[in-house]
Amino acid sequence: MSRRNENTGFRCLNCDARVVALTNGGYRNHCPFCLRSRHVDIRPGDRAADCGGLMDPVGWRHKTGKDWQIEFECRDCGTRSVNRVARGMTQPDDLLLLTHL
Ligand SMILES: [Zn+2]
Ligand SMILES: [Zn+2]
Question: Residue ranges of the RNHCP domain (predicted)?
Answer without folding.
Answer: 8-87
